[in-house]
Design brief:
The protein is an alpha+beta fold. The chain has 3 domains: 88 residues, Acyl-CoA dehydrogenase/oxidase, N-terminal domain (Butyryl-Coa Dehydrogenase, subunit A, domain 1); 109 residues, Butyryl-CoA Dehydrogenase, subunit A, domain 2 (Beta Barrel); 137 residues, Butyryl-CoA Dehydrogenase, subunit A, domain 3, CATH 1.20.140. It has 11 helices and 7 strands. Strand 2 and strand 3 form a beta hairpin. Helix 1 runs parallel beside helix 3, helix 4 packs across helix 6 and helix 9 packs antiparallel against helix 10. It is globular. The N and C termini lie far apart (49 Å).
Length: 400
């Protein structure tokens, strides 16, 4: 496991920090520390302009190969960028799903035509993506998807019908990568396709899901004969599961270090509040803060170990990656509970009109979803047991 950086990498750190300091000013000053969990609704248009500002400076897709529009930065440099980005308080990335998920997947599994069509818009920060995986009956059990894709010979297009749910930022996205069943008689992970679908077209309807935060980051997306060009299936019909699993490997990749710096920013906010209202004199609160700090360090070291042995360009990771989602989701939920206990009675009180949630209140409510989306804690434990430890698969219970 590599825990230190070379002098060249540290110089790169200085370059990143200086650029952020010089550019998080003017119209972007108000974006600092905004757009995190429970705060994604804030300044959406300004954050999209920030994506384009990053692109102008060459700071989007830095880990992509140079021939695909990236900088070809090493893992160490990508870690440094994500850490400095969060340390500077730069806003939540509007283009994260395109840069971190869609793009690497197209690079790994897509055709040359798909790379030429879709990668430039992601690099430029002008085209945003969302993820069409979960369905009402196929959340953590992705292999249970019911959305269908039928090829229309007359049109020369795929026609997609079905419903996706919990689709983050679908209302702001230009494209969606969709898992759909190409073989109507197939079951489980067989007979799936991975499609690149334009959102602004007839047959695609987005409905916001109001959360307990009062915002609508998640959405339902309905496909009613939505069209997808024949050349916009990634791989062949039936390859969808392989491509989808590769994408999940990218999701557990280097951006996790930036996520942890955002967690550190939130923990710092909790500590500031504890010092301000005297909660830091409570020995139990102090112990919980110390535990949160220690577990965040553990999270970092495990991630560094995981990334030090990162697999090939197909998104594969070491077995340490299997525990990451379970660990951070549980930790983050506990941080929300700690924040409310630090606030004490004030956690139940809203500030003056229009009675918006405070940042810590919103964070507490939003992180309740962390242990559900992206694979529930229960599913994550099964994955660890079966794939990591080689234990027998959980028996299937027949529904009467």
């Amino acid at each position: 496991m590599k825990l230190s950086f070379s002098p060249e990498d540290e110089q790169f750190r200085v370059e990143v920090a200086q650029w952020l300091q010089q550019n998080l000013t003017g119209e972007f000053e108000k974006l600092k520390f905004r757009g995190g969990p429970g705060d994604e609704h804030m300044f959406p248009h300004e954050r999209q302009r920030w994506e384009q500002k990053l692109a102008e400076g060459g700071w989007t897709c830095i880990g992509w190969p140079q021939e695909c529009g990236g900088r070809g930065c090493s893992i160490e440099q990508q870690v440094i960028f994500n850490e400095e980005y969060a340390r500077a308080g730069a806003p939540g990335r509007a283009g994260h799903i395109g840069e971190g998920l869609a793009g690497p997947t197209i690079i790994a599994f897509g055709s040359d035509a798909q790379k030429q069509k879709y990668l430039p818009g992601i690099v430029a920060g002008t085209e945003l993506w969302c993820q069409g995986y979960s369905e009402p009956g196929a959340g953590s059990d992705l292999a249970n998807v019911k959305t269908r894709a039928r090829f229309d010979e007359a049109k020369g297009k795929w026609l997609i019908n079905g419903q996706k749910v919990w689709t983050s930022l679908a209302h702001e996205s230009d494209y969606c990568f969709v898992i759909a069943r190409t073989d109507p008689d197939s079951v489980a992970h067989k007979g799936l396709g991975f499609f690149l679908v334009k959102m602004a077209q007839p047959g695609v309807e987005v409905r916001g899901i109001q959360q307990i935060t009062g915002t609508s980051e998640f959405n339902e997306v309905f496909f009613d004969n939505a069209e997808c060009d024949a050349e916009d299936i990634v791989g062949e019909p039936g390859d969808g599961w392989k491509v989808a699993m590769g994408l999940l490997g990218f999701e557990r990749g280097v951006s996790t270090l930036g996520q942890q710096m955002q967690f550190q920013n939130e923990l710092n906010a909790v500590i500031r509040e504890a010092r301000a209202n005297g909660a830091d004199h409570n020995p139990v609160i102090r112990q919980r803060i110390a535990r949160a700090h220690a577990e965040l360090k553990i999270m970092r070291y495990n991630s560094m170990r995981m990334l030090s042995g990162q697999g090939g360009s197909d998104g594969s990771l070491q077995k340490e990656a299997l525990i990451y989602k379970l660990f951070w989701a549980t930790w983050h939920r506990s941080l929300g509970e700690l924040a409310m206990d630090v606030l004490g009675p004030d956690s139940q009180i809203l500030e003056d009109g229009p009675y918006q949630l405070t940042r810590l209140q919103s964070m507490y409510l939003f992180v309740r979803s962390d242990t559900i989306y992206g694979g529930t804690n229960e599913i994550q434990r099964n994955i660890i047991a079966e794939r990591g430890l080689g234990m027998p698969k959980e028996p299937k219970v027949a529904v009467q």
